[in-house]
Amino acid sequence: MGRKGQRRSLKRLFAPKNWRIERKVKEWTVKPIPGPHSKEVSIPITILLRDYLGHATNRKEVNFILHNGDVLVNGRPIKDSSFPVGIMDVIEIPKTKEYFRVLFDKKGSVNLLKIDESEKNTKLFKLINKTMIKGQKLQLNLHDGTNLLSEQGYSTSSTLVMKVPDMKVVDSLEFKEGYIGLVIKGKNVSRIGKISKITPFGIYKDAVILESGNDKFQTLKDYVLVVGKDSPIIKLE
């Protein structure tokens, strides 16, 4: 493999543990390019098409599929086989009429959940923080690295319900007790429950207790994405 190839590749043994790939079959796999989502919580589109869905057997075939504009991520065609996708992204394959949402399973591995066409243009964004920029404009910084200018203020940690690819906010969900949360990080990843209490715990200022049936579990506020008021507004399992 030449130097250029190595810059675009990653040794399988050192690939993030949340990628469901064979580690010892081949030496190299695809390295994600810088983009939305950090490399620790994203996966290259090639691996999803080849290893997860079986729509290609090698990267050359993936490049052919992408070059023809046959795969959309959040409503936009993706051309680069190293493009990273992450939690809440929607993968659309128009020719096969397949639609998937990127989530994590109970082990923290990247997972693809098949969804209906009616959900393909809906994506949930966790509002990480917000800053005032030049011209007194409010910039919203979202969980996948997206920055959005807004005339309306939203509470930090709330969820913005947006239509993609237009990136239009159609609703918002506050981070409040009684709302439904999805854990997106930590040992309770993928669990869904009602936020029963937001309270400091030890050194953690923003601990959250969630309820699922008769079970209660605790995590950090930063690890929870609000997904609905009484029930999730999108398919999650």
Strand content: 35-45%
H and E string:
HEEEHHEEEEEEEEEEEEEEEE
Name the poorly predicted regions. 1-7
Helical fraction: under 10%
For the record, the count of structural domains works out to: 3
Question: Which strand order spans the largest sheet, edge to edge or round the barrel?
Answer: 5-4-7-8-9
Query: What is the assembly state of the chains in this entry?
Result: single chain
Through-space gap between termini: 40 Å
* Average pLDDT rating: 87
Class computed from helices, strands and strand pairing: mainly beta
Q: Count of DSSP E strands? A: 19
Rounded Rg: 19 Å
- Looking at CATH, the homologous superfamily of the largest domain is RNA-binding S4 domain
- Major sheet size, sense and barrel closure: 5 strands, antiparallel
Shape: globular
Number of DSSP helices?
Answer: 3
- Shape-level CATH architecture of the largest domain: Roll
CATH class of the largest domain: Alpha Beta
CATH topology of the largest domain: Structural Genomics Hypothetical 15.5 Kd Protein In mrcA-pckA Intergenic Region, Chain A
GO cellular component, one term: cytosolic small ribosomal subunit
Keywords: Ribonucleoprotein, Ribosomal protein, RNA-binding, rRNA-binding
Organism: Candidatus Methanofastidiosum methylothiophilum
GO molecular function: rRNA binding; structural constituent of ribosome
